[in-house]
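In this supplementary section we document a worked example of the pipeline. Step one takes a protein sequence of length 143 as its only input; no multiple sequence alignment statistics are reported here. Step two produces a three-dimensional model, which step three serialises into structure tokens for compact storage. The input and output of this example are shown verbatim.
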Amino acid sequence: MDIALPPAHPLVVHAAVVLLPLVALGAIVIALSSRARRRYGSLLAIGAVVAAGATIGARLSGEVLAGTTTGTGTLGAHMFWGLIAPWPAAILAIAVIGLMLASRREGGPFLLITRIVTVIAAAASLVVVVITGHLGATAVWVG
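The serialised model returned by step three reads:
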């Protein structure tokens, strides 16, 4: 007797769609506020790694699911953006960790650079996850 399991992608993708925007918004806050960075930075660094992992998991499970269909139209666009999505998420995780390491020393060019990179990576992550998620939802619910 075989038990049919649901595809992992619809389950895994929700972790990425929820965690990545939260981490991206939090990253912008800690990049701009040293007080928030001291208080929430370590938690956010862990969250950034988990969100990047969820994004990679969504991509991998999406590739498995893609083997069962053809990627044209909206679904094809979703698949394209899904291939890109892990990159800004991984860069964001690295940037947040770098920011936390740089903030151990007050001031300096490395701190400024990591703050700028963190904000850029956070913005890129937000844009990519919103586009990818919207295209995926449209492909599922509209067709």
